[in-house]
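Recall the central idea of this unit: under ordinary conditions, the amino acid sequence of a chain determines the structure it adopts. In this exercise we apply that idea directly, starting from the sequence alone.
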Amino acid sequence: MMSVEQYMERAMELARQAADAGEVPVGAVVVDPRTGDILGEGRNGPIASHDPTAHAEIVAIRAAAARVGNYRLPGLDLYVTLEPCAMCAGAISFARIHRLYIAALDEKGGAVMHGPNFFEQPICHWRPEVYQCTAHAADSALLLKDFFRSRRR
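Accordingly, the structure predicted from this sequence is:
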């Protein structure tokens, strides 16, 4: 079984793949903590897929749901390199993700620890446990900064 840091490193690899493909570098993995299996992986892909919902979290959740044959993913953990937006926070809640691990925080677009603090709202019916993985926060933030800096040139 891999450690929290190793699962987040896999999410970082997916984020780097997204950057290489010209997408915002965000990666996510859904893990069954009982077995250590990665059940779903995702990287940002809205541009290539022509799908505004193709955020890393949504892609990973869809893959895990297809693999387990259920739209709910109770007991599963999600590792993501950037704080989820409101859309992704809603999907995490509807999927009943048990634990959410976040690398970099997003003061502008994040909706878990910033902005609407989605999981604290009365409309939210399921709240995962939320943890920040500070070991990968700086690497994820730097990957994002470098990506956007290269776009502004």
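The CA atoms of residues 112 and 118 lie 6 Å apart.
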